[in-house]
């Protein structure tokens, strides 16, 4: 059965979307082939727009908290622009994958399972095994509710994807003493304890081989702190080809602009988490960027008028841009693309997204969302994996997670410095 407290609108949208039409009846779910981190058992729907992920109760609960905080804001501020301090959970919700509900899969769930979309939308999903195939999925998927999320990489043509594990502490309070000792040793023997990050895994598209090349978890566990910059170079390669896509990497000018936008979004996440009292154990930073030269360039150049405004010590949100700050790479200002700077001390300000004066005030938020969803993205940055995340009022933010994000910021700033400053009109050159 599918349940999603306070999420009636989102669930109805599943059957209304052109990608999953109600009249289609059934769709096929298969193993997610772009998964670079986390546990096995994650499924994707046929067009790749949704994922079905096995989830423990704590992760479901956290996603429900985020969704409820966002819907409460929508109800309270129907059609009204607001620019006052908001519940940080509402901001955090915009920095995580969209949560569409929970799906309980009962009985055998073979690979390539047919799911009745009408049943999902009405709240009673059924699993219909395809004929002549009785392959079993993970027992975790069978035992627990699974959460239905947007697939962040699903809108990309050739996604480069990295999962960066955050935090210096890899166990939660409920862990046994044996597990605490084991996970402490793991943190000490990898880059986690010193830096708050571990490169869990990543994939980079290779034009010559016409496939995404995967770098497994073993790489991130084996490297030292001194090797982290090299890991970032491997994930953000610059193409040695001029004019024709070959091998791995984007042209230098496009890669730089994507990196600066990604850096901006990560700084926004850092600021958001610095205001929230929680503990996040096993959480990750997911970064996706477009490897297709033409698509990436078009997405970058589609960013026209600056949307950035400096908002001291607060977040600025608008119902015309309901997901608040850092709403995809399309809303990064031109200044950020060119310099990577926001002009003031990052600890005191955040770049808020506001509607430009030149926009048509009569355009509804739904129409704007549809237009944005139809447009290609150059990159996306999200927080994921909340199986061991909980709110901790009175205990302050998670300093280990913040340390990890600060490490990622320094690594990206280093990569940008290596690539140098190239104007938007400059031709690409290899490193």
From TrEMBL:
GO cellular component, one term: nucleus
Similarity comment: family membership: Belongs to the inositol phosphokinase (IPK) family.
UniProt-listed GO biological process terms: inositol phosphate biosynthetic process; phosphatidylinositol phosphate biosynthetic process
Source organism, top-level taxon: Eukaryota
InterPro entries: IPK, IPK_sf
Presence of keyword Kinase: yes
Coiled coil spans: none
Pfam families registered for this protein in UniProt: IPK (PF03770)
EC number(s) stated in the UniProt entry for this protein: 2.7.-.-
GO molecular function: inositol-1,4,5,6-tetrakisphosphate 3-kinase activity; inositol-1,4,5-trisphosphate 3-kinase activity
The protein's enzyme class: transferase
SUPFAM superfamilies in alphabetical order: SAICAR synthase-like
Claim: Magnesium is one of the keywords in the record: no
Biased composition (Acidic residues): 356-374
Official protein name in the record: Kinase
Biased composition (Polar residues): 1-15
Region (Disordered): 1-22, 355-376
Keyword annotations: Kinase, Transferase
């Amino acid at each position: 059965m599918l349940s999603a407290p306070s999420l009636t609108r989102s669930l109805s949208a599943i059957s209304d979307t052109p990608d999953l039409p109600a009249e289609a009846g059934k769709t096929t779910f298969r193993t997610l082939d772009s998964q670079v981190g986390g546990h096995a058992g994650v499924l994707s729907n046929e067009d790749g727009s949704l994922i079905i992920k096995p989830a423990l109760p704590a992760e479901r609960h956290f996603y429900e908290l985020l969704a409820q905080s966002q819907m409460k804001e929508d109800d309270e501020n129907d059609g009204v622009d607001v620019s006052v301090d908001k519940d940080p959970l509402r901001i955090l919700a915009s920095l995580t994958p969209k949560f569409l509900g929970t799906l309980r899969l009962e009985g055998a769930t073979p690979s390539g399972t047919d799911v009745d979309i009408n049943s999902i939308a009405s709240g009673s999903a059924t699993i219909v095994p395809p004929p002549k195939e009785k392959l079993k999925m993970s027992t975790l998927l069978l035992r627990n509710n699974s959460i239905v999320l947007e697939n962040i990489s699903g809108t990309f043509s050739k996604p480069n994807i990295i999962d960066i594990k955050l935090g210096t502490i890899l166990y939660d309070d409920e862990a046994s003493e044996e597990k605490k000792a084991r996970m402490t040793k793991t943190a000490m023997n990898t880059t986690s304890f010193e830096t708050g990050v571990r490169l869990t895994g990543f994939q980079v598209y290779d034009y010559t081989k016409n496939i995404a090349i995967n770098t497994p978890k073993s790489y991130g566990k084996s490297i030292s702190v001194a090797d982290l910059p090299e890991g970032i170079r491997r994930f953000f390669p610059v193409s040695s080809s001029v004019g024709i896509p070959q091998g791995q990497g984007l042209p230098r000018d496009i890669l730089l602009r994507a990196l600066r936008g990604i850096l901006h979004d990560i700084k926004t996440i850092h600021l958001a988490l610095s205001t929230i009292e929680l503990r996040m154990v096993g959480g990750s930073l997911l970064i996706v960027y477009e490897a297709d030269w033409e698509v990436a360039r078009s997405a970058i150049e589609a960013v026209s008028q600056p949307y950035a405004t400096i908002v001291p010590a607060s977040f600025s949100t608008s119902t015309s841009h309901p997901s608040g700050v850092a709403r995809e790479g399309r809303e990064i200002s031109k200044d950020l693309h060119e310099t990577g700077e926001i002009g003031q001390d990052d600890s005191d300000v955040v770049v808020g997204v506001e509607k430009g004066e030149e926009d048509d005030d009569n355009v509804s938020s739904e129409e704007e969302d549809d237009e944005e969803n139809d447009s290609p993205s150059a990159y996306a940055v999200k927080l994921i994996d909340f199986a061991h995340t909980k709110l901790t009022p009175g205990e302050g933010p998670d300093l280990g997670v913040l340390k990890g994000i600060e490490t990622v910021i320094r690594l990206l700033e280093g990569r940008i410095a290596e690539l140098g400053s190239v104007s938007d009109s400059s031709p690409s050159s290899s490193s």
